[in-house]
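ARCHIVE CARD
Drawer: 12
Card no.: 0347
Subject: one protein chain, sequence and derived structure
Cross-reference: see card 0346
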Amino acid sequence: MILVVEDDLNLANLLGYNLERAGFNCIISITGEDALNQLPRKSFDLVLLDIMLPGIDGFEVCRQIRQHQIYREIPIIMLTAKGEEIDRILGFELGIDDYVVKPYSPRELILRIRAVLKRNRRSGGKMPNTLKSNGLDIDLKCHKVTLEGKELVLTMMEFKLLVTLMKRKDQAISREILLSDVWETDKNINTRTIDTHITRLREKLGEKGDMIKTIRGIGYKLEGSIE
C-alpha cells in the first residue's frame, strides 16, 4: 500500500491510476494533516510526498514520520517541482530515501518505487540484529540506537550512515562509497551531504563523536572494536 500525498487532485488521481496499473494499491491525501491521519489506518509500504502542500508542508510531514517510533522506517520518495540542491539536501537530511523532480515520467517513478522497496526489503533481510561498539548499541530490527544505555534520536539517513561506518569499522570509506552504500546513488547528490550528516552524528554522539575520524582526501572511518 502506497500513501500518495499530493495537493493537485488531478495529478494525484493520475498518479494513483499509474500506480494501480503497475500493481500497487494506494491512498491519496491532498494535505499534510490528512496524510498524518492516514498513517494509523493502513499498513503503508511507502510514501510519495510532495513538498508544496497547504498547511503542513512535505518537509514537516517527513520530519514527523521520521520521529515516530512506529512509522519512521517507512520509505519516503519526495515529489517536488523544486530542483534546487538545498531542497534535495534538506530532504535527505530529514531522511527521505529518494526524490523525483516534476515533471517526471510515470515509468521512471514506478522504477524508483520498485528500487526503493527492493532495497528496503533487502536491507531488512540481510542485516544482523545488533551492532555494538564502545558503548554504542544499534538494534537493527527495532531501528533503535543507544549510547551508554541512553537512546539517541537519529534520522533514517543518520542511522544508515552510522550502521555503514560500524559495519566497516577501522576502514577508510570515501564519500562516494558512502553515497553508494547509504543512498545507493553516485550522482545528483553533492558529497557535502555526507559531511553534514557526519557533523550531526558527532554532535549526537557527544564525547563518543571522536570515534568517527576524518581521513583527509578520502572520507571517514569509525575507530573501535565491534562486539
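Annotation on reverse: Residues 106-126 form the longest helix (21 residues). The chain has a mean pLDDT of 83.
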